[in-house]
Fold each of these.
Amino acid sequence: MINSYGCQNMVDPIRRVLVKHPKDAYQDQIKLNKQSSQLNYLGVPNFDKALADYETLVGFIIYPGMILLHWILFIHMIPVLFLTAG
């Protein structure tokens, strides 16, 4: 059985991406400050920078010119779940 997740190949085009918005993952800087050590982070991430970085990353992922590269990309947005950090 072939997995449809994980890294199956390091050279083929990316076909599917899982992303979770920082607002759903971290919720806010206060919660992030409290949870960063439990999440084994080396430092406390900057929530505002995470928001900006997320928007930049998603902008690259859904860049309209990607169709010219013949990529078929599925973006799966991960919702807020009780059992995860957010």
Amino acid sequence: MRSSPRRPRKVQARKDEIQRLARERLGLTSNQAFADHLGVDVATVSSLLNGSHHPSSIVLATVIDALDVKFEDIFVIAPLEPPARQAA
């Protein structure tokens, strides 16, 4: 019996929760300050929060460690949206 093919998935950040935790636990109020704290470029933080970046496992681990949370507290696994079809 064949199983159905797995749909590709992506990690999505829970932006509001990450920003709240960074503010409350670390006293950081900007993406730049959070990036500096993590040791990454501000573009990495911005793209992680807005969903345009698929974070590496190192970035995921760094964020989780910095905020002292579990993965599922600040990230969700979501189906990867198929590319939009263009009309012929």
Amino acid sequence: MPSRLYPYYPGCDSGRRVIAIDPQVGFGKPMIFRAGITTRAISKRIEAGEADMEVAADYGLTDEEVRQALLFEGALSARAGLRGFCEGLA
């Protein structure tokens, strides 16, 4: 049974697996697997006003890895908003 998931999300590069979800690493939180940094930590720092390049430098990430983390978090937010909208219709 596979224990690591490489999620698909709009804008992801399916040929280059950047984001992974593994229940044995980081309690199964989505992360930039190469660096062990959660996508949420990256997005929260950028939402707080830090520059993408500064966050990338702090964690030793590429600009593309930061971009993928933001795309993934954006897809999660959009899905959560849609779920709330659908529940309001019931």
